[in-house]
Amino acid sequence: MPDVLVLVEHDGARVHKSTYELLTAARRLGDPVAVLVGAPGTAARLRESLARYGATRVYAAESTEAGEFVGSPAVDALYLAVRTVDPVAVLVSATTDGKEVAGRLAARLDTGLLTDAVDLDSSGTVTQIVFGGAYTTRSEVTHGIPVIALRPGSFDPEEHPGDAVEHALAVPPVDPAVSARVTARRAALAGDRPALTEASVVVSGGRGVAGADGFKVVEELADALRGAVGASRAAVDAGYYPHQYQVGQTGKSVSPQLYIALGISGAIQHLAGMQTSKTIVAVNKDPEAPVFGVADYGVVGDLFSVAPQLTREVAARRGGS
Amino acid sequence: MNIVVLVKQVPDTAAERTLTGTDHTLDRENSDLVLDEINERAAEEALTLKEENDAEVTVVSMGPDSALDAIRKVLAMGADRGIHVCDDRLRGADVVTTAKVLAAAVGTVTDVDLVLAGDAATDGQASAVPAMVAELLGLPQLTHVRELALDAGRVRAERETDSGEATLGAPLPALVSVTEKINEPRYPSFKGIMAAKKKPVATVGLDDLFPDADHAAFLVTRTRVVEAVPRPARAAGTVVTDDGSAARRLFDHLLAQKLL
Ligand SMILES: Cc1cc2nc3c(=O)[nH]c(=O)nc-3n(C[C@H](O)[C@H](O)[C@H](O)COP(=O)(O)OP(=O)(O)OC[C@H]3O[C@@H](n4cnc5c(N)ncnc54)[C@H](O)[C@@H]3O)c2cc1C
């Protein structure tokens, strides 16, 4: 079987779920080979988890400066790994960082890049959803090793236990003249909530939430449903919620099992980021709100009355079960 | 100091966007084209820096004839000159090609200190081109930036992504891509619009940027769309008006759908 490189996303202690999805997807094309960039000791900690999801080998580029630069350590490691194993494809998660790493790698290798894929077949042809859900396209790489960024949440991770031997990748040190250095970092304030693009439930608030305080109602419902919180651009622009939670054309694309829109009118640019959700629920005071045109279940009503009641119902069921 | 700002003309998202039946590329004839709004903010940032640092601002755009409108708009805002990359062979160019062509166009400007771009165009959504241009030019990449400062030959930036916020630093020259949070773009004045008509815009093609013709011919062919199918529009479902019991009914509905 040919090798398929998979870039590992992790926080030092745990592998991100999106990486297990990549390993699962990679098996359609060949043997998954994990490429890991991190502080010394990371590979030893994560190797077993990667092997459980099918990684046949782990190539580790470990250094103390791995986390200090944006993108470059991952691009350098993947580039060297491509040169070392000659894979049939490289898979990366289509996160903000992942898309840039994939792009830079493709540019450096001068090969075809396919981003934000939602599916992948054994010939390497990927499925993408473009123009805010208006079209489904299938694309292939016609030149070079395909570099593919897969949208998190598109694959169900499947265990495929085996052994994964660790190999060291001797990547030269990053050149600070061509790489931006991270001088301070503030973690996202997601707390215990699942990541927006990976969550199976997303509860989003819009301008109708009427303030940062009002977002408590959104957060409480999200927590009861063990989901993530999203926001419309109007809510973000008004300062109710941070930018990285914006859903839509210029924010995140999400495709959860359940999307609940609270006080969101349903502008085309918002719909672009959520209309591939399996089930959409909308609560809005205005019966004419365009969001009702895409909602499977719409409630014409005040979100400050409907959402807390729903939170209580859900909490009661969770408490009782 | 020399600043280059990369801008793109995109179909207005408020209008319907369609793909051509023949080669699955964007149907430009049937779209309203506008200067992408994040790029407008990148341009605004370039002009603010120009005022503070006495810089020369060059605006670069790749696209058909109509892309000249996007360039003129940035010139009207206050940029000094334009480079319009226009070549029929670039129709349907993929991201790698786009990045290579833009990098080559930036390479024609001498002594560039800073390249500015928007972090994601509203059409392609790849959100990778700025990082790729940085890679190809050998520049540090500072992407998804909501605050930017130049000082003593260095750039400092506040970056905001899903993994949190970070402060970045790099020596110039560097490439910076901005988010919607960075600023509010100015409106071109009447005087600016009149002045823009006289500002120089160089039109360049692939042969100018890549004198090696073989290379240019292969520029657009690394990926191929094999199929494009319009997705059925979502149909509206049940709508209930809240009389105090809607939350309960919604809960029952979610339960019945096995969503809880
Ligand atoms: C180029 C471009 C890109 C864009 N990208 C995005 C994007 O990525 N994401 C995005 O979301 N938008 C985006 N937009 C903005 C988009 O056009 C809309 O302006 C935005 O989505 C509106 O947000 P909203 O629905 O929260 O606000 P509004 O349109 O103001 O709607 C608020 C809604 O709340 C309802 N409401 C008020 N009070 C209550 C209450 N108590 N209970 C229930 N309902 C209530 C109102 O009836 C109303 O329908 C973009 C726009 C442009 C031009």
Could you please describe the fold and organization of this structure?
The complex is a heterodimer of chains A (321) and B (260). Chain A is an alpha/beta fold and 321 residues long. Chain A has helices at 17-26, 42-52, 72-85, 96-109, 215-224, 233-237, 268-271, 303-320; strands spanning 3-7, 31-38, 57-62, 89-93, 113-120, 126-130, 135-141, 147-150, 165-168, 181-187, 201-205, 228-231, 258-262, 279-284, 297-300. Helices cover 27% and strands 26% of the residues of chain A. In chain A, the strands form 2 sheets. A 9-stranded mixed sheet of chain A has the order 7-6-5-8-4-1-2-3-9, sandwiched between helices. A 5-stranded parallel sheet of chain A has the order 12-11-13-14-15. In chain A, α7 (268-271) links the parallel β13 and β14. Chain A is elongated. The model of chain A has no long low-confidence stretch (mean pLDDT 94). By secondary structure, chain B is an alpha/beta fold. Chain B is built from 8 helices and 13 strands. Chain B has helices at residues 37-53, 67-77, 95-107, 129-137, 190-196, 206-209, 213-217, 246-256; strands at residues 2-7, 9-11, 33-35, 56-62, 81-85, 114-118, 141-151, 154-161, 164-171, 174-178, 201-204, 223-230, 238-241. At the A-B interface, α4, β5, β7, β10 and β14 of A face α3, α4, β7, β8 and β9 of B. Bound molecules: flavin-adenine dinucleotide. Flavin-adenine dinucleotide sits between chains A (206-208, 232-235, 246, 248-251, 263-265, 267, 269-270, 273, 283-286, 289, 302-304) and B (13, 37, 122).
